[in-house]
Amino acid sequence: MNKNDEVEYCNLELRFDRQHLQDLIKDLIKEGYSLYWSENETVFLISVRTGRKLVKLRFQRIKEGFKLVGDYMIRDARLSEWMEKLIGDMRGHAVVKRFRDRQIIIENILFGEVIRLVEISGYQQRVLYQKGPLLSDQELTKLFFSVDGEERIRDRRLEVDEVLDQLHKAIQAKDTERIAACKARLLVLTRELNMLEW
Hints:
This is IDEAL domain-containing protein. The protein is α+β, with helices and mostly antiparallel strands. It is 42% helix and 38% strand. The protein has five helices and ten strands. Strands 1, 2, 3, 4, 5, 6, 7, 8, 9 and 10 form a ten-stranded antiparallel sheet that branches. The model has no long low-confidence stretch (mean pLDDT 83).
């Protein structure tokens, strides 16, 4: 990122527990940022000073901990790099817009991975990178705000564990019919997991 670039983070979805938040504060202090934080029953707020600007990171309280929410315009290169590392490490979702000269680069990030990269110059739009099948903007938005995919992945992984356990018992019992059935089910489950995790 150039020092002149502006980066906007939209539709952020990053989940944290309290220990993660404490580690984030320590990391930001180590990076040399001046900051303060406050908390109430609904929001944990970290205010980071970047030069003359103040970036307020809002963490909404949820059942399992906290969720970073909102849109953020960041002009500080180090803070921007830190934010992108955070999105990757936490396998979060975001739409990242980089404003450079007369050009905008838009990254769609799902589970910490760039799935689409678009360049906009004037009125022209060009897809630079697209992972997997082409998705419409509506489908991408639905994926970003859906937790169904994560739940299905978790369910399938549990089912794989159960089938592996059944396969182990079938092998010990030398039950060829059950062994074949377990292997067939594992093939279906691994294919589905690959499609869900793409």
